[in-house]
Each structure stands twice: as C-alpha cells, then as structure tokens.
C-alpha cells in the first residue's frame, strides 16, 4: 500500500483539531431541480462516481516509525465505501441552517476525511449539496478538484502536455557535495532570518490592539452558516470609481459590514480594527498533483472604526499593496510557513496549543476560494449558487470565505452559533455595505 507523508502544514491542521473545533472546510452548492426526486438521484450519482476519484479514497494514518515518528501519511483506504461518505437527508426548508448543523460535526478520522450531504429542498424545485473536506486532505483548490470529479463531466479543451527538459550536465554526486555546502548554509541562514522576521512582525501586530469581543468565543462546538450573493458588476463599478482591486473591494465590504453589525447589536465600532488573515496560495501554477497545503498569508487591520466607506476601502487598498510589496514570505501573516521548521512529533504534541494560539495571530479569517467561470451541473441540474465555508479557528467566532461564480460574488459566513446567534444580521449588513458604496461612488 503506497502512501505519502503529510506536509508540515497539513500535519498541523490534522493535529490541532478537537471535537469542538473541527478542521474541515466546506462548500454549500444549491442546484435547480426539475423534479422532487432530483436530490435522491444526485446522491446516487455522487456515490457512484466517488469510487472512481482516487483522491476521495485517501485516508490519513498516523505514523510511529523511527524516521517519521509522530507524523502522518495519506494512503488508499482498502475498505473505502462511498456510501459511508454520501448521505441523503430529509427535505430542508433552509439550506444554510441545515449546513450549519452539519458543519459542526467532525469528520470521522478513521476513513477518508470527506463527506457529501445532499439536502432536497422542501419546495421541490431545488436541492443542495454540502461538501466537507478536512483541511489536511485538501485546501480550497484541491477540494474544488475533488468535488469537480464527482459532478457532471465538463467538456473542456485539453491542455497541451508540458515539455520537461532533461537536466543539463551530469547528475550531482557525493564528490560535488563540498561545493554545495556554502549554498546550503546560505539557505539555512535565510530560513532563520525569515523566521525571525515573521516572529518580530507577529509581535508588533499585537501592539495597541483593542480586542473585539464579538469576534472571540470560548469553544462551544456549535456552528451557524449564512450566505450573501452580490452582483460582480456592482463590485466592478465600485472598483472603477474608487480604485484598487476587486479583492480590495470585497475585503472593504467585510470591514463595513462588521461596523454596521457591531453598531446595530450595541457593541460599538469605535476604536475597533481587528486583524484579518488573508490566505495566499504559494502553489506553483499548473502543479501536476496539488496534494498538500501551500499557504502563506497577509495580515491587515480591518478599518472597522473608520466611518467613511471610501476611507475604509483606501485603508484596505494601502494595506494590501504594502503586503504584496513585501511578498507572502514576510510579515506576521506568513506564520504558516514556520510549520516547515517544526518536527513531526512537535506538531503531534503541540497541535491543540497551536490552535488555541490562533487568536493571538489574527481575529478573523477572510479568504477567497477560486471557482471556474463555466457552469457546473449535477445530474443535469444547474449549480446556481455556491457558498465557500472556511474552518473556524479556536477562540474565534467568525470566518468569511468569498467566491465568484458566473457573474456573482458569494460570501459564505461561518460562526460559532452561541457567540453569533444573529449571523443573518451580519449577512444583511454585507448587502447594505455594497449599496452604500455604490451610492457614494455614483454621486
């Protein structure tokens, strides 16, 4: 049975999980339905197709061998049964409410850590599928590839094969090692300098910070999910008028929505500038098998305290430019890179502590998940909405994931249900913030 070791960051995700803080990401897709039985048919298709996707057969096994003591590896599960992973539920009136209850359930660690929950709509003209993938099995891009493998096939032009040039010159041997030592030493020193820089930046990021009580929570193990849909053309109108990138606008919308939400619930937004972690993929383009997580991040202060909507956007834009100029390998947001320098056993023993320390690093996650521009289908039924759902870090009450699909922006909000019982109010605030930005830009 072949297996491959988990990368250090994957191992960290695997070990920081607890019953009250599952480390899976998700996506809630809503499909049209031509008949009340479309959901049941979709569940049958997902189960039948899952067996043919190798990545869905992978389980994660802990290792105790001398050379990988405390590590873990992905390997094919010889007892894989798709029916253990694809589940058909009773009709649902509210897909987001049902998704919240399902997101709070940890994945079973003894078998491939993914699930697909099919929710027929009580209206008979729609159904939803909630995909769950453990973060140690897949990041957002990998999860998309796995899910796409069990949706309807899409006819796309095949990419021309890449031409791999043979290595030039003789292969290195032991006699060449002395000549390589200076380069190896420089690499070690560079890594040490980068680690020190990240640590110092993280320490500076905590100075003068006013904690936002609404974004912190003692673990309750409960989850609530909400979704918001925006027109991408409206986002582009704001971008063209005020400057910046689409991503800058979408992040600024989160800051403005948080301000509205805090003021409406009576917590107040004065002086509040929570640290937002903006994940950045470090995956090489066109990687053949994107197995492990390759993530860094940018850390910015969300200008929740700023009263001017355009002022909030300018602040976000400036912070993002500064982060991009420094690059994803520097600054407090790059803490995930330090996982590469931690031994496997330390990940095993310190995983829960690392998870609890997330609140010292950032206050809220705001991540973008790439989606294809073409339409997706399941059993011939069109995917009309898709809400990405991010894991919730220990000690934190809210995470925001954003995807653009077929001309619309989808915000997926995940919260601790006890800490944020009014998540729908925050969802309405997202829509209201976009309307405000449009009115200001149209003046």
From TrEMBL:
Instruction: Provide the catalytic activity annotation.
Output: an acyl-CoA + a 1,2-diacyl-sn-glycerol = a triacyl-sn-glycerol + CoA
The metabolic or biological pathway listed in the UniProt record of this protein is: Glycerolipid metabolism; triacylglycerol biosynthesis; Lipid metabolism
Keywords (A to Z) from UniProt: Acyltransferase, Glycerol metabolism, Lipid biosynthesis, Lipid metabolism, Transferase
**Source taxon at top rank:** Bacteria
The record places domain O-acyltransferase WSD1 C-terminal at: 292-433
O-acyltransferase WSD1-like N-terminal domain mapped to chain residues: 6-249
Broad enzyme group: transferase
Record SUPFAM superfamilies: CoA-dependent acyltransferases
Q: Which NCBIfam families match?
A: acyl_WS_DGAT
State the PANTHER family in the record.
O-ACYLTRANSFERASE (WSD1-LIKE) FAMILY PROTEIN (PTHR31650), WAX ESTER SYNTHASE_DIACYLGLYCEROL ACYLTRANSFERASE 4-RELATED (PTHR31650:SF1)
| Record-given protein name | Diacylglycerol O-acyltransferase
């Amino acid at each position: 049975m072949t297996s491959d070791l988990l990368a250090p960051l994957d191992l960290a995700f695997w070990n920081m999980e607890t019953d009250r803080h599952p480390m899976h990401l998700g996506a809630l897709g809503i499909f049209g339905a031509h008949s009340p039985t479309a959901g049941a048919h979709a569940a049958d298709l997902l189960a039948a197709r899952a067996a043919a996707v190798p990545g869905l057969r992978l389980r994660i096994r802990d290792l105790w061998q001398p050379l990988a003591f405390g590590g873990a590896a992905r390997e094919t599960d010889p007892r894989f049964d798709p029916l253990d992973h694809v589940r058909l539920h009773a009709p649902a009136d509210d897909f987001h409410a049902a998704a919240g209850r399902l997101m709070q359930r940890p994945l079973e660690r003894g078998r491939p850590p993914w699930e697909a929950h099919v929710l027929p709509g009580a209206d008979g003209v729609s159904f939803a599928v909630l995909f769950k993938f453990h973060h140690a099995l897949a990041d957002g891009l990998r999860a998309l590839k796995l899910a796409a493998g069990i949706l309807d096939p899409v006819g796309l032009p095949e990419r021309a094969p890449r031409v791999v040039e043979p290595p030039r010159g003789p292969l290195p041997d032991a006699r060449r090692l002395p000549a390589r030592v200076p380069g190896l030493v420089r690499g070690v020193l560079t890594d040490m300098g980068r680690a020190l820089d990240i640590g110092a930046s993280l320490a500076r990021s905590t100075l003068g910070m006013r904690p936002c009580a609404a974004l912190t929570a003692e673990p309750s193990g409960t989850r609530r999910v909400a979704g918001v849909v925006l027109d991408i053309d409206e986002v582009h109108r704001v971008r063209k008028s005020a400057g910046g990138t689409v991503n800058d606008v979408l992040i600024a919308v989160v800051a403005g929505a948080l301000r509205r939400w805090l003021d409406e619930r009576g917590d107040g937004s004065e002086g509040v500038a929570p640290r937002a972690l903006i994940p950045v993929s470090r995956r090489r383009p066109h990687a053949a098998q994107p197995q492990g997580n390759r993530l860094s991040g940018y850390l910015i202060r969300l200008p929740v305290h700023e009263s001017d909507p355009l002022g909030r956007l300018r602040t976000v834009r400036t912070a993002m430019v500064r982060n991009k100029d420094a690059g994803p390998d520097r600054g407090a947001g790059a803490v995930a890179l330090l996982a590469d320098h931690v031994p496997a056993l330390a990940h095993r023993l310190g995983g829960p502590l690392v998870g609890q320390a997330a609140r010292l690093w950032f206050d809220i996650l705001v991540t973008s998940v790439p989606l294809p521009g073409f339409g997706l289908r399941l059993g011939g039924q069109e995917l009309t909405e898709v809400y990405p759902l991010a894991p919730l870090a220990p000690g934190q009450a809210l995470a925001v994931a954003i995807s653009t699909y077929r001309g619309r922006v989808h915000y997926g909000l995940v919260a601790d249900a006890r800490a944020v019982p009014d998540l729908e109010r925050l969802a309405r605030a997202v829509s209201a913030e976009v309307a405000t930005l449009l009115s200001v830009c149209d003046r």
